[in-house]
């Protein structure tokens, strides 16, 4: 049996459409033009402060200050209900079901704040699979600091660990935490996989249950 911790955005769920819509709503509210889907998706993975900083920078504004505070508050207020355009990736629900049936313990470690993370998991009927959910605001540090990932495994009671994520941040986190890492290649990564740390790669969640069996014993 393994203890498997998943990243959320770009790994279990394709949430970029909601994050794009919320970002453009926040920009519009502040009088700025919208950004493209690809632009906003490239900002996802390092938490909300980073995202909001990128939105401002893309519109020629400083990343910090009064405007940042306003957009950050507006984005945060909208984030809890930004769930309607989000879907689990193909095969995710079946993979979670199979992993649970096989007795593996499952958790989530995301840089999304924990309240919207829980909201979208509830909305998609996924919450029951996870014994622990840590967000970008659960601890004073977020990924790629290894602490949130290690704390998620600790909350799940230990066991043979595997981390599943999609991004450069996840790869760095796994490396820093010395946890076996499966890289999902269908998410929001910007770097070629050959240049990223990973112990295994997959592009189809049907492959994950088998992958986990051997990764857990690395
Ligand atoms: O909120 C983000 O920036 C991304 O969150 P993730 O860690 O689930 O990819
Ligand atoms: Mg991610």
Overview of this structure, please?
Keywords: Carbohydrate metabolism, Hydrolase, Magnesium, Metal-binding. Specifically catalyzes the dephosphorylation of 2-phosphoglycolate. Is involved in the dissimilation of the intracellular 2-phosphoglycolate formed during the DNA repair of 3'-phosphoglycolate ends, a major class of DNA lesions induced by oxidative stress. The chain is an alpha/beta fold and 218 residues long. It has 2 domains: 143 residues, 3-Layer(aba) Sandwich (Rossmann fold); 64 residues, Orthogonal Bundle (DNA polymerase, domain 1). The protein is built from 9 helices and 8 strands. A 6-stranded parallel sheet has the order 5-4-1-6-7-8, with helices on both faces. Strands 2-3 form a two-stranded antiparallel ribbon. Helix 6 links the parallel strand 4 and strand 5. Helix 1 crosses helix 4 and helix 3 packs across helix 4. The protein starts with a strand and ends with a helix. 2-phosphoglycolic acid binds next to loops.
